């Protein structure tokens, strides 16, 4: 018996072209068992008339369904549900118990969910004044070339790179480019055994933390510093000391004597934007040698140096293999890419590689290959260049607006970057300020989470300009000024 | 002064179209400082003649270079290196010290690199008889539709899904499809707070291991079982007991009394392919309730049930929230995708989600969205169907060849799958056998790594048929038979 055309209707919530929606409609009906093997489909003319679409649309959808074995075509007799079409199993799904008998908070010790992270509202892009850090700006991104590189990486020639289980390996094309073109810009020369790809800087810092620290190991964090580091180190069970940074970054003379590992953002301190002068870098490396500690250098955002030339990474001065260098494409391409890397002596990379394999194997091959093409075809350089020029204009507008509003800059970075570190008057709690401003379409980042929780000031905040259009900066800053004046 | 065309040559090792290679050539010259700001480029005609390419190719390359700000066009005067083109920094990269002063094997305790994993030669695809497990088969994969879905996920409408830092969140489209279409096939009904996306099953099992176990926690592994589980549990510092499986999988009555967590592959035991009967599943869940333990169910490869209908997952019988379910798209789409999921009570998902955020944040947005389209447009069902039919034919050929060669099957699975678990005669070391066969173009998987290392038999091996063409099976199996006869 033929299935009547009236059985079909096109729900508005289905996505895609008409042809795709018809295909999906038929496939779902088959999988859910509404249309059964051997049943005759409506004629393409009949279904087209019923749905109010052109006949060719239905014919193409049917042809595709034959190719994917949902339907078979019996010449002039028409289309039939294939006898080997996918089927739903016969058992009924049962809802999970409403009240679990196991208390997972107790059983797991809730060890991870307590970790404090920087959080932004998922709908940040719909805010008029998003002074938030680290998201991609659609108006600057080179969508067209990214798409072309991704498409090329989907080609038959790259089938293995796309689909293979690499286990603990990386895409040699991407590694090659990082070694030859990215690291030299930071003064670093390395071999392929000294580099490991990671799922962004977060994953790189986590791997370094796991491999280098553990119970009894003493680690130094800069105060303030990137909030996720705290969670990463809490998981290792080691001892964490906080050392206050000054306007030149981390002072080596303030390090405790028995430190084993130091995490630093020497070239561009997070969040104050301070650049560590060369003399202090040498002093830090001398201290590492004398006291036998190692250094994890998070060289985030070095690409965004548009005010003056960036200085070489700490890693480039490292003569003893004491520096573990962390880089990322999150700021220079986009964070959803989840692609970063570690550069370190082979002995350390070996451990990090084994741990990465254990936890996740490798970043998806398609992502790696797409990035390799985007980099090697020069699109990356052009994108970074475009971002630098836009950020420079925005920074100028920020500086003017901040001065006009009488706000206080606590750190702005000499080489560039994408944010200002700000101090509100003492007594202003910037978490409350942020909630007030949220109501007015302004997103700022309260500073408390960056500090040692034992003694965190509440009046700092960060203003980023990586995603806000230059034309909205003045009004946004003005609103912040008004809100602070109200809060004092 | 104009740069002479003779400065340019097209090295053979550059990839891409002629136009891309010219672009890359120019961009590299600029970044490396060979061509400087303000210098005039050769005319398109001059460069085309020199390189022996058409003039339009050079013109298009130049136009693209203007768009990405490497060059500027001054009308009829021609093209010039842009004054805001990207530049190499001025410092020289320095090679890392040849001999590191830090012994990272001692400092890190080499805790991870000792982990034994299943390894396949990276060039497995060039072998004539690859009886290896778990890679994608180019002859079955639906390349065209995957490409279309990926392309659609690269569209402007999906910019946020592509680029955003999701932090601890997942793509709602993919979650929706898993909840509505994948889990019901396993008899599981769940809500979005009960699902977490992971970087493949490896990452799911690792997260479950980290969240549920730790020092003092007693875990049971099936003997034999998936080798990476051992490494995952070693990292937690808990106690591991091995329990021998029989032809019905894990016997609940053999579990130690004080067990906290049981890892099982109930529906399709890895590597023996045994299916646990319903009565034993109920007994296992009753034991979990009586002894207050939880179960991690790795439901790998359930899609490949082509001999008879698959039975519902253990999770579908779980009335107390004791089962943590792990699924993956590695076998049904491809392993390089790195996409899997955990289904569990919300309290557990909360911890796993926080830990995932800490270690890597989230699987790349583009991967998630592409998979969501591929699934929801019905391509996934069609692909699985095609794979099942091919696997069925291959399995038949395997069974015949194995019988003809007089080899001994130790486990083959009643519902399907993609491998046979084999026993060579006692005394045959299958790791030596594998090395011999490797020379002859035959890849098999030695069984030792699947077992409790304290007492691992050496005569088992696995023969998979997920990537070997049906026409090569007979000859490959015959070679294995000959090699075993030689080894006895």
Automatic annotation (TrEMBL), chains A, B:
Q: Where in the numbering of this chain does the HTH gntR-type domain appear?
A: 16-84
Keyword DNA-binding set for record: yes
Q: Which UniProt keywords apply?
A: Aminotransferase, DNA-binding, Plasmid, Pyridoxal phosphate, Transcription, Transcription regulation, Transferase
UniProt xrefs under SMART domains: HTH_GNTR
Molecular function per GO: DNA binding; DNA-binding transcription factor activity; pyridoxal phosphate binding; transaminase activity
Determine the domain of life of the protein's source. Bacteria
Q: Does the keyword DNA-binding apply?
A: yes
| Name of one Pfam family that matches | Aminotran_1_2
Q: What family is this protein classified in?
A: In the C-terminal section; belongs to the class-I pyridoxal-phosphate-dependent aminotransferase family.
Name the record gives this protein: PLP-dependent aminotransferase family protein
